Amino acid sequence: MVTMIRIRHLLILLLAVAGCSPKAQIEYTNPILHLDYSDPDVCRVGDDYYMTASSFNCFPGLPILHSKDLVHWEQIGAALLDYPCDGTDADFRTTVQHGNGVWAPAIRYHDGWFYIYVGDPDRGIFMVRTQDPAGAWEKPVWVVRQKGFIDPCPLWEKGGKAYLSHGLAGSRAGLKSVLFVAPMAPDGTRLTGPSRIVYDGHKTQPTIEGTKFYRRGEYYYIFSPAGGVATGWQTVLRAKDPFGPYEEKIVMAWAPGTINGPHQGAWVESADGMDWFLHFQDKGAYGRIIHLQPMQWLSDGWPLIGEDPDGDGVGQPVPGGTVRMAGSDASVMAGSDASVMAGSDAPVMAGSDRPSPMGLPWAWQYPALPGPYWHMALPEGGVRLYSVEQKWPYRSLWDCPNVLQQKFAAESFMVEAKMTFCPNPQLKEKGETAGFVVMGNDYAGLRLTDTASGAVLSYITCPGASKGAAEQEVELCTLPYTSHPLPHAYESKNVPLVDYPDRQETTLYVKLEVAPRPVEGNVPDAVCHFSYSMDGEEWTTVPGEFISRPELWIGAKWGFFCNRFSPKNDAGWLDVYVK
């Protein structure tokens, strides 16, 4: 299976061999990224484009993606490896804060620095910055502490003035559909005056949010989605003063035969002077996937996004188009799957060859800040998950912070993995567990439970996990252990022998197959089937199917876990190799 990083290297090699000249015509099909990158924002520096997106409670947070052509993207890093907390907030290290944390960031390049501003609905707005987007980012700076402030975007003017736009989360503030602008210090670290409501959308633009702040000519522009995530449209406001009054216009809307939404995104001007808009589409369990739209500025100073077949000045999403790539004139066809991977069954998303500070590819995330002893990177791309103690009463994996996960990477895909379970032989009271799971508001998977007679394999499901429902279990079989006695080389030195029990392990191969099922008037269901094998050759399919569901604000994910339920000074582990 081939990831996008290899595709991109192959593409560059072929173009180089062909001796191609600048400005290739690249045809693309939407979505350009069938991956869950909610609330994307993009900036360009020279011929390079950089994207970030919401990460909510998942870490590493604030992914950093890079592209040369706006179509082919790879993740090169993440800006948030830790999280600011003043001691009174919920702890992202010990509990899963579903839907909380990192909402709707904005990325900008200013005076030699890359800045990301992000809102946390419970804490306010903070900023991170770096001079190398693929490297380390500085620790977050809390720009303003105010519950309910979300969706910030900075704007630096040529004369040195700076501003910050943002929205308001009704769930925290008791008010929504209003937008703010505040004066900001030129260094971007603090506001120099109070935030002021500059626009009220209650009458014409309900649930307006997701601000992106720009200056073009004599106008200040705020690009903001309205109308709700799955059913809304893209609005643009403009004024000759940053504090208004603002005019409004809908510039792109959902039309029959086009995608639902379309929602929040980013305007970016390409190196050849063309205008583009990247935005997300809510696709249920598949998450919020990324589309690319052409954009143009009309003679009246308003933008139009997408195409306008009826000439009413309101755009609608396009199924695809053509962009120019600096460095080549070859014509390349890039479909929605090809921009992520080769083939619909490749399980690993596009990612840099360099591992994250966790020692793993950037595709992997935890639903909480990871502990330093949760895993170890293994040779040849494997990972060892150590069993983490879970406190009773334990409801389900919904509350488990140490589930190592990846996004759904296409409508149809397959994941196959080899798991070797080596429980701590001193833990027999409640037994360690380990397994393979699809997580969302509901979840399902395959679990191994350590017992005196072997590792019991069960199919687990948890409908209503997000509402506190209990896990359901169907036992499938029991796997025998293979013993590995410890070498006792020190016995000959007359050292008293410590009675360590032998380590035991068992190996299981697991498979997940995901395919879409059309649903009338809605996005397709993501239908999951699980299989298992003792040798990786002959497979047994678990009866029935599982319809995956999104989690709060994010798409479903697949991943692995290893837990224990008794206090002990040592742990067992699960070794995982994904094919």
Briefly say what this structure is.
The chain has 579 residues and is mainly beta.
Please describe the structure with a list of short key phrases separated by commas or semicolons.
Tachylectin-2, Chain A, 2 helices, single chain, Jelly Rolls, 7-stranded mixed beta sheet, disordered N terminus
Q: What can you see in these coordinates?
A:
Mean pLDDT is 89; it is low at 1-22 and 327-352. This protein is mainly beta and 579 residues long. A hairpin with a 5-residue loop joins β19 (265-269) and β20. It folds into 2 domains: 2-342, Glycosyl hydrolase domain, family 43 (Tachylectin-2, Chain A); 375-485 and 499-578, Jelly Rolls (Sandwich). Strands 26, 27, 30, 35, 36, 37, 38, 39 and 41 form a 9-stranded antiparallel sheet that branches. The radius of gyration is 25 Å and the shape is globular. 3% of the residues lie in helices and 45% in strands. It contains 2 helices and 41 strands.
The N- and C-terminal alpha carbons lie at a distance of 8 Å
Poorly predicted regions: 1-22, 327-352
Percentage of residues assigned to helices: under 10%
- Give me the CATH superfamily of the largest domain: Glycosyl hydrolase domain, family 43
Mean pLDDT across every amino acid position: 89
| Annotated CATH architecture of the largest domain | 5 Propeller
- Count of spatially separate domains: 2
CATH class designation of the largest domain: Mainly Beta
Task: Specify Rg, calculated over alpha carbons.
Answer: 25 Å
Number of helices: 2
Oligomeric state: single chain
Report the sheet with the most strands, covering strand number, pairing sense and barrel closure: 9 strands, antiparallel
Strand content: 35-45%
- How many distinct beta strands? 41
